[in-house]
Amino acid sequence: MLLDYSTQLTALVAVDALESAPSGGPQAHHACLDCGAALTDKFCAHCGQPADTHRITLKHLLLHDLPHSVWHVDKGLVYTFYQMLTRPGLTIRGYLAGQRTRQFRPVSYLLLLVGLSALVMSAFQFDLQQAMLSSQPTSAGSPSMGLMSVVMERYLSTTMKHPYLMQLVLMPLNALVAWWLLKRAGYNYAEILLANCFIGGTLTVINLAVMLPALLAGNPAFLKSASQLVFIPTLIYSFWVHAQLLQAAPTFTAVRRYSRALGISLLQIVVLLLAAMVCIIVLTVQVLNERPDLRPKAVPKKATAAATR
Questions:
Q1: Which has the least CB within 10 A, 61, 211, 270, 309?
Q2: C-alpha distances in Å from residue 93, one per residue of 84, 222, 233, 240, 245
Q3: Could you tell me the pLDDT band of residue 297, with boundaries at 50, 70 and 90?
């Protein structure tokens, strides 16, 4: 009861301060307008609200609040992305060590960049799907060729509609692979999982930058080559980040650090390829259940014996 009364009293003090303040522009108050605590600095020591509270106007919303929320030069998405491009491993190490005020939260960073990249990719979804399908065998010929054509068409259709779904699903497994080789540096699994959020979000933009010229050109051969080249920046960037993360283990020699970083990068690509194979196998079973006519027909034994003579 005493706690409830104290909370109500501080709220009433805040409301009184708000009502007594003149309207019209930015105001500095002696009591926090959110919790009623006394203000001694630029921010409330109790709840963290700024002491200088601006009246909301359309001009202030468009020119200050919205840009400040996302593009703040020393705290926000752009700042974190720039740091992840210039000093990724050191940025992650600083965040895990407690330097978190300026950095965008890793899960929000991943989801926002993946969402933005998927939105851009959706505009070129048809062109990319056609370019990938053009390299696949057609249904003409043997039934097995027809089966593979249908399976790959369905697989590519799924991956084009949800280009980063597999990356998100595999992130816990990739983090487990990285943790296996990074635990000697003192990292736990949760820390590596957050580090993979930073890495995965940055890689989506890097891969999009690799694909974008080909998407804009609309050349099927160019698109096919670009889609295959995305493994190169993924491998290089992952190696660079994990090599910097392993600097936290001073007992490791340079050779040992770089070999572990390369091992993490290669193993994570292997995990992605194995996941793609599992997905194709599942789709093959599904297609065979739906289309029995695509089942490969067994060759008669007599015909096989005659062919061997």
A1: 309
A2: 11, 38, 22, 13, 7
A3: low
Phi-psi region of 36 (alpha: psi -120 to 50; beta: other; left: phi over 0): left
| Distances from the Cα of 176 to the Cα of 154, 179, 182, angstroms | 30, 5, 10
Mean pLDDT of all residues in 176-196: 91
Residue 309: predicted pLDDT: 56
For residue 30, count CB atoms less than 10 angstroms from its CB and return exposed for 0-12, middle for 13-18, buried for 19 or more.
exposed
d(CA 276, CA 270): 10
- Site of tokens 């060759």: 299
Q: Do 241 and 232 contact (CB within 8 A), yes or no?
A: no
Rg (CA), the chain: 28
pTM, two decimal places: 0.71
Q: How far is CA 37 from CA 8, 26, 51, 52, in A?
A: 12, 19, 11, 14
Residue 76's CB is within 10 A of a number of other CB atoms, namely 17
Q: In the structure encoding, which two tokens stand for residue 100, read together?
A: 């978190």
Cβ(245)–Cβ(185) below 8 Å: yes
Q: Which two tokens mark 260?
A: 């572990």
Sign of the torsion formed by the C-alpha atoms of 110, 113, 117 and 118 = positive
